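Hey team,

Filing this mostly as a record. A colleague (T.K.) asked me to run one chain through the structure pipeline before their review meeting, and I want the input and output archived in the tracker in case anyone asks later how it was produced. No errors, nothing strange. Just documentation.

Input sequence:
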Amino acid sequence: MNIDLPFKMGISPTLKIRGIIATKNIKKNTIIEKCPVIPVEEKYENFLEKTKLSSYYFIWDDKHHCIVLGYGGIFNHSKNNNVTYYKNKKNQMMFFKTTKDIKKGEELFTDYYDGDDEETISEFTDFHKKIGKLGL
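Output structure:
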């Protein structure tokens, strides 16, 4: 199966570490990645901090962190982010969406501390109806 993603994993031009780079122009408000997550109880945070996962987990809710699968855990952090994320707690998914137009070759950043519960975002209602019909 060939998935046509609008980005690739590469070396960050600014940070010189692994990052996500746009492979084509991407319009503002485009959902670019849908990732399953693995919730981890907050009481295990000390264990996470002692592993390589310490740089890759997100806060999920007031009792859990989560490990984001797919490319979601590879986005680098910036307060000047061009991607935001939304949490779908019911389906244990995280969605990543552009916050501005992105040019080919530009690095994609998210603010690790600025995600939102997507249940409060009305634009996802139709999306959930569609994936519900597909059984996803």
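Quick notes for T.K.: The two ends are 17 Å apart (CA to CA). The chain is about 10% helix and 35% strand.
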